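Chains adopt folds. We examine one example:
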Amino acid sequence: MSKPDDFWLKKAESLKKERKFEESLKAYDKVYSKKEEKKSPDYWHCRGIGLTEIGKYEEALECFDKDLEFNKKSFETLYQKAVVLYTLNKPREAVECFNKAWELKHAEFLKLNDQAHTLKNHKKFERAVIYFDDAKNVKPIPIQFWHIQGLALYDIKRFEESNRCFDEALKLDENEPEVIYDKSKSQLMLNNIEECLTLLEKACKIDVNKRKRLLVDNNFEKLRNDERFRLIRDHDRIPVSE
């Protein structure tokens, strides 16, 4: 990369850290002024991320599609595309994209693990250890992946699958209030009322602002007359007797 290109790339990264996303995108474009197919391998992915951060979701989607067209399919691009699709209120397409991303990540792990076992069986132990380590160090799927996939599945009324995604998210952080809150909704749709209320109570203890949200969240309409639900929702508004 030439010195001018290096300058603009550093400038773009600096602006991004300052959350000046539109200026950052302009700096990136100073670097990549060649034909699309000759751009840097990570250009379309980075541009898609930048456009997502400033709310230009349709344009971001086009960038992720170009990245998948011009470069080797990656978990990260499929994941980011799925998030954008969900944001654009396209939950079915988002779920399909999440599934493709997971399959890619799972295949990466299996390939490394299989290679390690093959080398082990051929008594090539040093190389086998390297592949086992690589398999073990495959970058884990982030909590947001499972959370947003769970929300997308909830939106298309696949509540069992939605619940399983929230479970995967909670394995990564069992006290994440947003995931706990959203899991309570899927439990309610599965008619697991007691589990729903237990989760709601936990979410509201961790984040008291969730109580305010319950005042306007129509997902819990069927619990409006439930005494335990009202106690959870109105906890901070109930006057203390002297």
DSSP finds 13 helices and no strands in the chain.
